[in-house]
Every structure is written in C-alpha cells, then in structure tokens.
C-alpha cells in the first residue's frame, strides 16, 4: 500500500524522466528502462531498433519496433517501479531493461503483476532472488538474458573437482558473488570434497577507489599472517586486473599460487602477468562478433532486441492483433493487459543463437544454455620475453616501426616459437645486467626479471650455474661456455740480430756444440786406435784423415749438410757417422720447422700467454663484467686461495676499477692498451673476427654451457629443451654458429689467429741426444771388436813368420852380387 500511495507524486515527475524515440522506426512500442550504468545513448538505441539492422529478416512486419525510453539515475528501485508503470500505461507491448539488480527486482514485480513480458539485460550478474517464482502460472513473465549464479557455481564445481584444494580465498565486489560461492560450497560438500573459504569483499565505485581498497585489503590479509595460495575472483574485469597487479606486488603471483578468475568479459592482463599461473574461466561468445574490447552487456542488449523483434513478428503473424486498453498500476485493482499471453509463450519457447551465444530460457526465465571456456595463461599464445644485448647472441636495430631484435639466440627463439606455436613480446633488460645475487638476497639483471616473473623467458648468453639454478630453471645448453682473455695485439718489436737462434733454447745450442766436439774427438780416437783406421795406414791418401782437425771438419760438414767426405772405411767409424747423420737430420728438421713459425710471428711480443701468466704479473690490468656470473666465480674461488685469490684481490684493488659495466666497455678498454678482458670465449671470438687488432690468449677455463632462463617449474622448459636438442642433432646450431661467427668476419686468418710458438727446449730434444750417445757407445764397442778381430784372426793369418825362408832375403856379396 505504501508504494501505491507514492504513485500520484511520481506521476507528476515522470515528464522529466521519460523520453520517446521518434516513431519513424515502427508502430509497435517497446518500453526500455535504462540506468546510467548501461551507457547506451538514444542514438545507439535507435540503431539497435532500426529496420536497417534487419533489412533481410523476412519475419519482420512493416510495423517494426519503436522504443519508448525511460531513464533512471543509479540503481534506484523507486524510480524503476514508477517508470515501469508509466511505460505500461503508455501502451507498450513489452518491457526491455538494462539496470542494476535492485531495480531489476521491482521491474520483475511490475511485469508479473501486470502480466506484461519483460526481457532483462542487467548490467551485471544478479543473485537468483531477483527472478521471482511464477507461482501457479506455467510461464514466467521475466526473461533474463544472463545465466543464473547457479550456472556459475556448477561451472566452478566441475573445475575444482579436478584440483586438490582444501582452502580458498574468495574475492568479490558484489553480493551476487556470495550466492555463487554459497552454491559452490554446498555442491562440493555434496561431492564429498568440502572446501574452507575466506571471503574478502572489495567495494568500489571508481578505479582509484578500487586500487586503494584492494591494496589495503590484501595488505591487511598478509599482516594477519595469512598467505593463501588458492584464489577465486568473481567480479568486474577491473577488479580482476587490479587484484593481479596487487598480487604481483605482494608476491602472491608465483608458481606456488593458483588463481581462478570467473569473468564474462576479457581481462586485459599485461604481459607482466602472463606467467602461467592464472586461469580465466569465462563465457564463450561468437568469435566473429566478439573482441577483447567488446562489452558483454552490449551483446546481450543486441540479442534482446533481436529476440523481441522476432517474437513480436511471430505473434503478429499467428493471431489478429487487436488494440487493447493499456494496463494500469494506479489505485484500486490492477488492470492487466489482455493479450492472451501469446507473446509471453513465444518468448518462453524461443530457441535461437545470438551474438552472445545460444538463447533458451528455463522455466524460471534464466538463459542457462551457456558455454564456458578455460584459458590457462600458463602458456599463453603470447609471452613476455626478456633479452640481454650481447653480440652476436642478441642485437638490436632501430627501425621506424620500433626496435627489432636479431642474432644467434633470436634465431633459436624463432625456431622454438615455430615448433610450439607461440608468439612473444621482447624487451631489453632494464639495468643491462646478467644477474647476480645481492647482499639482501634479491637478484638483479635478467635473472631478477625472471625471478620476479616479469618475464617468461630470458634470452641471452646466460651461463648455467649452480647458484642460478637454485632460483630459476634453464633449458638444455645450446652452446658450450668457456672463459679466455683477450688483449690488444702488440706493436712490431725492434729487429733482433740474433733472432735466428730463437727456435732452439740456449741449452739445446750448447748441447749441440758439445756434441760436435765430443763426436769429433771420439771419431779421432777411433781412427787412432782402430787397426783399420786411416792412422794405421803408413802409406796412401787416407793417412791425413786421422788428424783431429780433419775429424772436426767431417763432423761440421755433416752438420751443415755439405757431404760426408772423407769416407769412413772402418766399421766403428761408420757406425758413429751413421748415428751422427741421424742426429743431424732431426736437429736440422726441428730447427727449420720452428724457424718458419718464429719468422711468421716474429713481430708479436706477447707479454702473457695464459691466465697463469696474467696472474703472476702486475703491469697489465685485467677484469670482467660487473655483476656477471664470471665475477661471482672469481669471488667464490678467491676463498680457496692460490691463483684465483691473487686475481680477485688484484681486480678489486685496481684503481680505476678493473670491472666494466658491459662487454662493449671492456673491449674498448682492451683496444686502448694495457688491459686484458676476461670473458666468454664465444663472444671474444666474434669480436676478434671483427676487430683485427685484438688477440685471444690461453686455453679456456671455467667451462660450462649457455641456456635460456625461465621461472621455476615452467611447464614449457622440456618443450624448449627438446627444440634445442633437435637443432643440435640436425646441425642447425652449427650452421647458425657459422653464420654469426665466421661468415661476416672482416679479418684474415693470419690476422685473426694467433700462432703460439715456443722455443724448443732440451727436454724436447733429449731423445735425439740419447740416440747419439747410444751410437757413440756402439762405435766404441765396434772398436774393441775390431781390435780383437785384428789381434786374433787377421794378424796371425796375414803376417809372415820372421824365420820363414820366404821372408829371409838372399845373402849378398860384398860387391853386391847375390850369394847362390
């Protein structure tokens, strides 16, 4: 009664709130009640009702539909009931509303009381109580284009039955969320999977209020010692977006947490959050008409107008449409519309498909024929990729369309994207660092970006280390890693008059001189004491060969490869000569080969030739990149003492600092001179092939591998690793190495390659001297054998007896005649 007593007063105010769209659109009036949250102006509404939208629809009669619009401010039930009555008294055939839930409740009452069909498109999902039961009547009068909260609850129930949650934090911004959660908890209890819930309501009007309120509620929750890991968000899209931002701020967006967002509209989540831990659970719509920027309510509104148009046309075609007196909700008995409920029955039995999907109402008037989709952004079609610039792994080129990244790692990433059908957004490391653990336990650089889940993948020449593996995951190594040092090539040194002596060590030269003298003396002795030597020949040209000067000349002539004359015609001499010639052969070959190498690099005076040499000197400063894995390596190994401790103390104590911020800065210092840069071999080889004044020194140390970094537990790690293994097996990685390291080289092999040569030391030639000594020993043994043979075999047989008649000369007479 109280409501009816206020109607006359409201009737006086109605001209201020009531508008009519020109009747050129059609003759069948449809009452439209809008509040300001619907955000539909008269022009947009006119376009919805215009026959232009349905020119090809043969079911529409010539009369068409004409909207009669009534607007209310806010979700005001009093204004809504008055405008509903006012429209009915104007003679509208049906009502169409787009209001809040409280206004919808009273409009439903007007519709049921006056028996006029009402199609509702609430601006948000409403609790089940807004749809009144139809009592003894077989049909409802209100038809809600949205699904009921029970449908939301059942959809969540099906999903939670696959999880092992025992407790959940439920965040919502309207009371209909309580209805959904109540139905969900009851359904899970019936399934034997009871779930404890913490409810957190976030009330807001503007996005500024939303940000402030959300921050306060989440912070208060954490201050109470509650850090949940399971969340369900039910509300407007701005609520979901803001909650994810705050979750990232308070470390609630990690692999240990899981979020389910029940949402009709798309939530525009920045790439910052696309890390694989948020599941969107939303209604599906026609892909041809819906985009992430579409408003779901506008789709419902278009479908409602189309449904009314088709239903009115069908009602006109099936019965003779006679004008009836308008209904009334004034004082006294309510006057209802006498239309035989034809239009209501048509709406109740409608089954069609609109822009929002299939449309079919249940007996309570809900459009529950809806479909849901699950979008797990654990591996979205587009992910955030972090790149750390380092030639030739990752390089950047500025273009009119923006920066373009390219390089060895980008080629591998493109192959991964092709194999696994994803796209990526790439950005550069903000602080231009690879990443080390700071004193407060946090990480900077690329590792810090991945650890904070600002990036899905870090793409660069990141070294896989045990310390990094504790906080992030890596793919399989795509390239081997090792550390060497690079220096500036030394300038040409002054001409060395004694450079021809450089191939052999001084000890070797003195040993050769000693061998010449020793073998000469031994050969002289062989001549002197051998019964077959030239010294024993009283007559003949070989007599002079037994002199010491002649044996020395023979030895030197053989050494100079000028012939072996004179010929040694006795066994011991020939044995010694043969071994001496073998000795000369090895010495000359070694000297000739090493001399050629020394002449090739005779201009280079390399001050250090290994990292050990570098550690033992203090003239040349050396260092590496600050906050890099290599710096961490030196810091940790310095605690063990020895070479690494000396190197670390030298680098830390250098002034100016031995550390550089980037590789480019390190190479620039090298080119200025008196600085050695310790860095990845792969990077140094690339730079050496393009900067011909640089030279790489020493063998690689601290060996390992390069990999792509990603958050711990990333489900796509194995897939990306498999791509790397396939590329290595097919030779694709090797081809990329050739392309980026060798093909574009600007230095010749002679300039780009350092030939390390060292003097031949005595240790390396000891064998040939041992062979010579063995030859000397054999020649001495042969001498003794010659003496024995001559003494016991040759002499008794060849020397005549002094008393033999054949040896006694005939006697001579004094006058010289022979005595006979």
Automatic annotation (TrEMBL):
Sites marked Interaction with the cone snail toxin Con-ikot-ikot: 635
Keywords per UniProt: Cell membrane, Disulfide bond, Glycoprotein, Ion channel, Ion transport, Ligand-gated ion channel, Membrane, Postsynaptic cell membrane, Receptor, Signal, Synapse, Transmembrane, Transmembrane helix, Transport
Ranges of residues in domain Ionotropic glutamate receptor L-glutamate and glycine-binding: 392-452
Site (Crucial to convey clamshell closure to channel opening): 608
Subcellular location: Postsynaptic cell membrane
Bilayer topology term: Multi-pass membrane protein
Pfam families: ANF_receptor, Lig_chan, Lig_chan-Glu_bd
InterPro entries given in the database record: ANF_lig-bd_rcpt, Glu/Gly-bd, Iono_Glu_rcpt_met, Ionotropic_Glu_rcpt, Iontro_rcpt_C, Peripla_BP_I
TM region(s), chain numbering: 508-526, 578-599, 762-785
SUPFAM superfamilies: Periplasmic binding protein-like I, Periplasmic binding protein-like II
Domain Ionotropic glutamate receptor C-terminal: 380-743
SMART domains: Lig_chan-Glu_bd, PBPe
Gene Ontology cellular-component terms listed: postsynaptic membrane
Coiled-coil ranges from the UniProt annotation: none
Disulfide bonds: 85-329, 692-747
Acetylation among keywords: no
Residue positions binding L-glutamate: 468, 680
A molecular-function term among this protein's GO annotations: signaling receptor activity
Domain of life: Eukaryota
Extent of the signal sequence: 1-26
Region (Disordered): 800-820
Protein name: GRID2 protein
Species lineage: Eukaryota, Metazoa, Chordata, Cephalochordata, Leptocardii
Gene: GRID2
